[in-house]
Amino acid sequence: MTRVRIPPTLRSEVGGEREVTGAGETVREVLEDISGRYPALEAQLFDAGDLAPFVNVYVGGEDVRTLDGLETRVNGASVILLPAMAGGC
Amino acid sequence: MLGTAPSLLDLVGNTPLVELSRFAPGPVTVYAKLESENPTGSIKDRVAKAMIEAAEASSELEPGRRLLEPTSGNTGISLALVAKLKGYPLTCVLPANATAERRRVLELFGAQIVESPGEEGSNGAVRLALELAERDPSYFMPFQYANEANPRAHYEGTGAEIAEALDHVDVLVAGLGTGGTLMGTGARLRETFPNVVIAAAEPLPGEAVMGLRSLDDGYVPPILDVSKLDRKILVSNEESVRGLRELLDTEGIFGGVSAGAVAHVARKLAGELEDGVVVCVLADGGWKYLSAEFWEAEDVAESMENTVWW
User: Fold this and answer.
1) Does A8 touch chain B (CB under 8 A)?
2) Which of A35, B55, B97, B206 could form a disulfide with B305 if both were Cys (CB 3.0 to 4.6 A apart)?
């Protein structure tokens, strides 16, 4: 099982949990597994089958958009979900 | 460089590259570009100067018009210098939890400050500034997040300087904020070194500053094209502080929080190579962080939760 860290913005969709677990070999499979149990999460994470624009997903601390996107393999690493935030002081 | 300059604005850029042989020893050479050597002490001098001069050149900005910008610090301080020397009044929108030094420097330079809610982080400052600009069209907002002069300053400056100084670059590491440094410097380096890996060091924000109402309030800067990045690596506040303390201990470089993060990622990526050259861009010095609690805090991560650090 892959541990998935949930940001404050998405906790109400998962019953207030800070972390949930999901089964699967790729990011897509893990997130779909979790969305199956928490249907409200699905609309937030996916946009026409792709990752929604304001969600960032990290595997082992690296953004999957610079890896293989939703097809990135999790390989036992933990997953972090974050809202897209402005940086740049 | 000996000689004289007409004003501080002529001393922006041309920052030194220094080898980090103690911080990152090994077969891979790591160089740091010290953006703290700019007139106000940060990389944002390049951006502020470029944005204002581009707006002047296109006649978008008339003499004496009030500038408005969302910024938690460095960009505001750089704009304050440029505004002062060029005769524009300036209003900065900054999160209420920005460090005291930043606020004081802005005030000393004569900038007006408008506070946005601290828990909304930079997104809150961006949102409020956009609202203010819409309500009052007399403001001119350079808006570093969407201004092409921001990446261009790094294409023509930061990137060109690195390409001129080094025969080869395998990896570029810079902090991800607006995306300006990574987009501009990356594009320029790719022209000279087609196989260069462009790597972003990205802050893992504390829980308290992620308190957005919904993901729809999220923000991706228009100038940032993530597809141009080869790596995008999260760095915790703790790793950043460890990095900046180590930079100080080993090299005597007193960097800011993002500098610590960038150096941390540079060393990590150097470890993935057998040989070659890694260049990291250290955006500012540590002076503006002296009032922060993380220097003495027992729980460094906890002490940094409530602030956006870069």
Assistant:
1) yes
2) B206
